[in-house]
Structures are given as structure tokens and as C-alpha cells.
């Protein structure tokens, strides 16, 4: 990602100059409005125990966007214990990271299988790979 280049807004597709924000100014304002709605809703005492589904239904803000607010720390799970968001693997509600414990375990298993495979590669192959990444890295830095 480079600053000050023309890019399509990932939210609405409009061409805009990518700066500090990764969405266009119009979407940025909309997101702020959506955040206001969520935070106003959650500020009410009777909504303290609301879950993400209820907040989404009450405010019209997508679960995906609310998930972002939680991940960014704008909506505090400490204050709203039921505000879990869906695991990217299976949709189970979680409160940290991207995956639930089960999916994280599954992913780890895949990674260790992958490592096993890599270990089986000949030392020569590994050496060549390392050289390649090293070169690619120094080229990028220059
Ligand atoms: Zn946009
Ligand atoms: Zn999961």
C-alpha cells in the first residue's frame, strides 16, 4: 500500500486518492455515522447485554462493519460482554483474534503438516529458497 495513489474504495468501488484512510471520504463519513448509531445504541443501559445480531438489527449496520469496530477496539467487549463477532472459519462468536479455538487449532495442524513437508525438502532446495527470499527482500529495500 502506497500513500497518495489512486485506488478503488474497497467499500463502494469509487476511485479515490488513498491517504491515511483506506476508504473514500464518503464511506469514511458513513462509517463514522454507523459507529455513532452503534455506540448510541450500546450506551443505553438496557442494551448493555446486546449481542452483535441485535445491534445490527437495531441500527441497520452490517455485522461485518460492527466486527470491524470491535476489532479496532472502538466497541469494547469489556463493557459489552455479549458483543462477540463471528469466527472467520466457522461463524462461531469469538471475542479475540480472527478464529475460534477450534479453527485456530485446525490451522495450526495445517501449518505443522506444512512444516513437515518443508523439512522433507532437500537441504539444497532450502538453501536456494532462502537465497531467493533474501534477494527479493534486498531488492525491495533498495
Ligand atoms: Zn467508498
Ligand atoms: Zn471457528
Order of helices and strands: EEHHHEEHH
Low-pLDDT ranges? none
Q: End-to-end distance, in Å? A: 17 Å
Rg from alpha-carbon coordinates: 21 Å
Largest sheet: 2 strands, antiparallel
Percent strand: 5-15%
Shape: flat
Number of helices: 5
How would you state the average pLDDT, rounded?
89
Going across the biggest sheet, name each strand in turn. 1-2
Binned, the helix content reads 40-55%
Tell me the domain tally.
2
Structure at a glance:
The chain has helices at 25-43, 52-59, 63-71, 101-120, 123-141, and strands spanning 5-8, 15-18, 85-86, 93-94.
Structure notes:
- A hairpin with a 6-residue loop joins β3 and β4.
- α1 (25-43) packs across α2.
- This protein has 2 domains: 1-94, no CATH class; 100-142.
- The chain has 142 residues and is mainly α.
- The strands form 2 sheets. It has a two-stranded antiparallel sheet with strand order 1-2. Strands 3-4 form a two-stranded antiparallel ribbon.
- The chain has helices at 25-43, 52-59, 63-71, 101-120, 123-141; strands spanning 5-8, 15-18, 85-86, 93-94.
- 53% of the residues lie in helices and 8% in strands.
- The two termini are 17 Å apart.
- The radius of gyration is 21 Å and the shape is flat.
- One zinc ion binds at residues 87, 89-90, 92, 99-100, 102-103.
List the helices and strands and how they pair.
Layout: E1 5-8, E2 15-18, H1 25-43, H2 52-59, H3 63-71, E3 85-86, E4 93-94, H4 101-120, H5 123-141
Antiparallel strand pairs: 1-2, 3-4
Helix pairs in contact: 1-2
Bound molecules: zinc ion (ZN) (2 copies).
